[in-house]
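User: Let's play a game. I give you a shape written as tokens, and you guess the letters that built it. Ready? Here's round one.
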């Protein structure tokens, strides 16, 4: 079998299930609790509950990474959104596209199984970012707003729960997480005018356990921040990427996106909770704990969309989150107060209201940090973040809610794509002070960032380049182009049989990739010779 395995066609056209797709019984709740520190797996979209995207593996390091080679490639046979980080358990990589879920050997790229989901309704956006894995079952959302469960060993569908009506603009793009017998996931679709929710479902049956309204109404806490909350012309509150959880407190941290209409804030006076926040709930009950709002009454579509990261520095429990507005925030969780707000890129005119004449702003809504949050290195106490420095012009326009159509209340003109600058940057996790910045003019960096004990920072860019930086200096120590496939996903790293591997998702050709020729999606696996 050659390095560019046509795994999808092998599994789907011939209907083969490879013999290595044996019964899977884990991971257990204990393994999930310890996933952030594990070296033999990458269990969640952001590795573990704390979302630190850090590995203590150092077999591949800044001194020898230049010798690293690609060992195999798995081609999915499709294009479109591909924004996953390959998740590994028990020697198998699990990842998703819009309607398909894949299991491949984490060393050889050999196809184990492929599940194709048949939608019964249409969807406004065909993007999916990954799965939850627990007790031998894979859980994922679908573009038509269903939650499904699959047998991790065979790909057989176990149950299917309708979460919301996709014809209204609802969809599930986030990678869910599993906790204490429940699957936690929320809806997206704010840009289509939906009123989003966060949910928990019973992992065995798919039955709904609790709901939290991210656009509160009536007597619910936060409803007073929508002065026209009863209007059908207000909504929003997407959860786009994944979630973060504190296993010590049992609280889930939810990054909540923009209000709607996106640009016409005069239709929704007030702070518009819980949009543009990190909102914290009890994961068992859905009960509200606290929240941090990054932008009240947002009128520029500056979602808080990437999952936050939990970390400790100088004995203080912190939460940090990066936003589309180009800011990196850090909060003291004990005192529930903001510690720093650090600009990652150029930020201009964000406090000025959107007008019908147009307002030049930096960044535009396709820049900043999109669906990928920080990585935290506990040794150097550093946060590493990917972002895009790219400006534009926003204008108010007609405000009209039409079922299944975008509900912007205006438009945004992006600056030419060649003016975008992709960045991977390092910040002191205690103070927010910048340490170094690696920049790629005219090339965006939107995928996930991963750091390791080998003094490596790993990421990819939209020209298809997989690169490693020395985490101490930002110097490039490795580069390889993944078949010119735009990297919108992330890098996972894991150990099998005493050998360290890295897997990267490339081929993202969805929104925000203007001027990029579609290239089929693929997973590439690397290791030392």
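Assistant: Ready! My guess for every position:
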């Amino acid at each position: 079998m050659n390095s560019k395995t046509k795994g999808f066609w092998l599994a789907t056209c011939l209907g083969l299930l490879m013999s290595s797709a044996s019964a899977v019984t884990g991971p257990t709740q204990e393994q999930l609790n310890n996933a952030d520190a594990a070296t033999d797996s990458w269990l969640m979209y952001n590795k573990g509950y704390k979302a630190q995207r850090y590995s203590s593996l150092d077999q591949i390091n800044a001194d020898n990474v230049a010798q690293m080679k690609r060992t195999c490639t798995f081609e999915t046979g499709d294009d479109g959104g591909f924004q996953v980080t390959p998740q590994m358990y028990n020697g198998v990589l699990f990842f998703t596209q819009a309607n398909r879920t894949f299991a491949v050997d984490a060393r050889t790229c050999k196809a184990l199984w492929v599940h194709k989901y048949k939608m019964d309704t249409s969807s406004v956006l065909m993007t999916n970012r990954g799965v939850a894995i627990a007790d031998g079952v894979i859980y994922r959302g679908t573009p038509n707003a269903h939650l499904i469960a699959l047998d991790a060993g065979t790909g057989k569908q176990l149950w299917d729960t309708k979460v919301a009506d996709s014809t209204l603009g609802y969809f599930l793009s986030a990678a869910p997480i599993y906790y204490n017998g429940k699957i936690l996931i929320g809806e997206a679709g704010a840009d289509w005018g939906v009123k989003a929710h966060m949910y928990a479902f019973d992992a065995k049956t798919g039955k709904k356990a609790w709901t939290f309204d991210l656009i509160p109404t009536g007597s619910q806490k936060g409803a007073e921040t929508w002065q026209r909350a009863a209007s059908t012309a207000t909504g929003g509150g997407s959860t786009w990427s994944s979630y973060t959880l504190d296993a010590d407190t049992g609280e889930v941290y939810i990054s909540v996106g923009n209000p709607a209409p996106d640009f016409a804030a005069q239709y929704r006076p007030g702070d518009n909770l819980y949009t543009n926040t990190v909102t914290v709930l009890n994961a068992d009950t859905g009960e509200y704990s606290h929240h941090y709002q990054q932008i009240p009454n947002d009128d520029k579509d500056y979602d808080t969309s990437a999952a936050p990261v939990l970390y400790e520095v100088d004995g203080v429990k912190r939460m940090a989150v990066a936003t589309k507005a180009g800011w990196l925030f850090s909060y003291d969780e004990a005192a529930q107060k903001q510690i720093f707000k650090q600009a990652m890129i150029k930020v201009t005119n964000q406090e000025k209201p959107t007008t019908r004449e147009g307002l030049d702003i930096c960044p535009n809504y396709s820049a900043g940090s999109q669906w990928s949050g920080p990585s935290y290195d506990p040794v150097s106490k550093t946060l590493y973040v990917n972002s895009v420095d790219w400006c534009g012009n926003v204008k108010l326009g007609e405000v009209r809610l039409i079922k299944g159509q975008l509900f912007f209340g205006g438009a945004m003109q992006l600056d030419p794509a060649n003016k975008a600058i992709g960045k991977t940057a390092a910040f002191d996790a205690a103070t927010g002070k910048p340490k170094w910045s690696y920049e790629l003019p005219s090339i965006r960096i939107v995928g996930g960032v991963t750091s390791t004990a080998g003094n490596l920072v790993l990421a990819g860019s939209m020209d298809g380049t997989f690169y490693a930086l020395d985490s101490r200096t930002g110097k490039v120590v490795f580069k390889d182009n993944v078949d010119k496939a735009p990297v919108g996903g992330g890098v996972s790293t894991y150990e099998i049989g005493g050998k360290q591997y890295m897997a990267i998702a490339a081929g993202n050709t969805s929104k925000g990739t203007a001027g990029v020729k579609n290239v089929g999606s693929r997973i590439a696996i690397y290791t030392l010779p």
